[in-house]
Amino acid sequence: MSDWGEHAWLLWIGAAVVAGLIEITSLDFFFLMLAGGALAAAGADLFGLGAPLQVLAFAIASAVLIGVARPPLKAWAQRGELTPTGVAALIGAPAQVLQPVSDSSGLVKLSGETWTARVAPGGRTLEVGSTVHVVGIDGATAVVAPSHELPEGRQ
């Protein structure tokens, strides 16, 4: 039985929950490691260890988790470039011309949806059935160009 009473493990579980809730707002994996330490201390209480050993279990487990588990977790969370979403994901996407596309009007089928479209500045009118690629999004209008006019790396 612990020096803190018969149910000290509940205090440690409560501390783990609080640390977990704080982690949700910070997303830095620091408080998650403290939650792990609190769970280790709860385990120490369940094994009948006294309060000083529970605090020691908390400190050691937290330090080990912060030193060993946190760095790879942070690296994993910050890996690579973010996947583009929304209109950014449409740049470079192929589209099919549904109505002739000029510098002021037109329609294309883009990602399964019909979009208003116009050619990129200086471009020529694109005919129905042409395959084009999106070079920009201007409000709700796709700015398109023929595939052979795209800069390197966009095809």
Give a description of the structure.
The protein is of the alpha+beta class and 155 residues long. It folds into two domains: 8-77, no CATH class; 86-149, OB fold (Dihydrolipoamide Acetyltransferase, E2P) (Beta Barrel), CATH 2.40.50. 41% of the residues lie in helices and 20% in strands. The chain has a five-stranded mixed beta barrel. A hairpin with a 7-residue loop joins strand 1 (94-99) and strand 2 (107-110). The longest helix is centred in the middle third of the chain and has 27 residues, at 51-77. The chain is rod-shaped. The model has no long low-confidence stretch (mean pLDDT 89).
Question: Notable features of this structure?
Answer:
3 helices, alpha+beta, 155 residues, OB fold (Dihydrolipoamide Acetyltransferase, E2P)
* Order of the strands making up the biggest sheet: 1-2-3-5-4
Number of helices: 3
Unreliable segments (pLDDT under 50, ≥5 consecutive)?
none
Q: How many structural domains can be distinguished in the coordinates?
A: 2
Quick recap:
The protein is α+β, with helices and mostly antiparallel strands and 155 residues long. The protein is built from three helices and five strands; from the N terminus they run H-H-H-E-E-E-E-E.
Topology:
Elements (H helix, E strand, L loop, with lengths): L7 H19 L3 H17 L4 H27 L16 E6 L7 E4 L2 E7 L11 E8 L2 E6 L9
Parallel strand pairs: 3-5
Antiparallel strand pairs: 1-2, 1-4, 2-3, 4-5
Helix pairs in contact: 1-2, 2-3
